[in-house]
Amino acid sequence: MSSTYSIKFPKKVFSGEGSLAELKTIIHDTKATSVCLMTDEGIYGSGLLETPLLYIEETGLTPLVIHDIPREPSVYAVQDYHKKLSGEKVDLIVAVGGGSVIDMAKILSVTMTNPGLAEDLRKPDAIQKPSVPMVAVPTTSGTGAETTANAIFLYPEEDLKVGIISEYMIPDFVILDVSMTCKLPPGLTASTGVDALCHAMESYISILSNPFCKVFSLEAISLICRSIETAYRDGSNRQAREDMQLGAFYAGLCLTTSSTVAVHALSYPLGGKYHIPHGISNAILLPYVMKENLECCREAYTEIAPYMLSNAEQIPKEQWPEAVVDYLFALMKNLGIPDSLQEFGVHPEDLDYLTDNAVKVERLLLKNPKKLSKEDIKGIYKQLLQN
Ligand SMILES: NC(=O)c1ccc[n+]([C@@H]2O[C@H](COP(=O)([O-])OP(=O)(O)OC[C@H]3O[C@@H](n4cnc5c(N)ncnc54)[C@H](O)[C@@H]3O)[C@@H](O)[C@H]2O)c1
Ligand SMILES: [Fe+2]
């Protein structure tokens, strides 16, 4: 099968424990004189900002620190921070955080160089000029935002989350230092880690899948599946944390040449209206959507099985597709992921709302290997509202 895809990556990646010190190299190489350091309250409160702050100060600079980026930010938050920064001279942005902080830093890096963009992020072709240079330091191992071209924001009036896409938002520098993820609590380790697994699996089965994506996808699946339960149970296990960090980064790389599919599509209304965090809604949906895709994906699941299942060799090969689905159900249980939406305030009477709004996420549904009918989508939500 032929495929065409373009490869666009961050310019430079520093990885390994201690690589955070490379912030000084970046500041030196970019000749930055005014650095803005961004994070959120959770990370700030946990003391994680101290080391990057120290490294920046060691270069003789005093960064402008923003430490209150909201979780799963709205478009209004983008406008507020854009306003705050408009009087400042910033020539390097350093984002220390999960997808919420990195997405905010990505969009601000282009609102600062593209006049008028902050007023309407969705204006077609609004992003014409390169961004202010940016460094992403991920502290969750999930979204892959450190390498993707998109940033996601809530439009509260429309109960909608929208992805803004531009290659100028691919961070210039990425620092993968495991010491930044070790304090991530178990619940967030599980849900953000499953988000990364979704990226790896969905991009593999997407109709946009390609040989490049498949290499990184299988490696991401292998790293994540061998370490996610250990990282969840024992957050101080460095090897497991390193595997998760690299796995999430590889899964992000997959998204740049392929796409997510129905898991993320059905997740959108759950984030938009019910404000279920991105990782959790994807994790709840993953086994159910992959079960729905089973018959269309027997070959793909057979290819994935040896990377995902530690006991694949003991299972007859023709049963590997079912074993992959069984593994996903068992994994969510082991990670304490709920198998019901009811505890998030979503009830059976919301079924039509969810279905109608998921159907609108054509951008992703059209890339799902099985063409899902409205009834198929309703059927998936229904199972999650009955439990
Ligand atoms: N740009 C992309 O490619 C992309 C892809 C998927 C999702 N997203 C978006 O990313 C956001 C979700 O990001 P996320 O799942 O990484 O979570 P997050 O950034 O929202 O963080 C979740 C919570 O974890 C805390 N936290 C993060 N790192 C920590 C650490 N090391 N120790 C202790 N606490 C820590 C934060 O303070 C926060 O309260 C959503 O808005 C989602 O839509 C973006
Ligand atoms: Fe995601």
Could you characterize the architecture of this molecule?
This protein folds into 2 domains: about 10-180, Rossmann fold; about 185-385, Dehydroquinate synthase-like, alpha domain (Up-down Bundle), CATH 1.20.1090. The model has no long low-confidence stretch (mean pLDDT about 95). The protein has helices spanning about 25-30, 40-45, 50-60, 75-85, 100-110, 185-205, 210-235, 240-255, 260-270, 280-290, 300-310, 320-335, 350-360, 360-365, 375-385, and strands at about 10-15, 35-40, 65, 90-95, 135-140, 150-155, 160-165, 175. The relative contact order is 0.11. The chain has 15 helices and 8 strands. A 6-stranded parallel sheet has the order 1-8-5-4-2-3, with helices on both faces. About 50% of the residues lie in helices and about 10% in strands. With about 375 residues, the chain is an alpha/beta fold. Nicotinamide-adenine-dinucleotide binds near residues 99, 145, 161, 184 and 278.
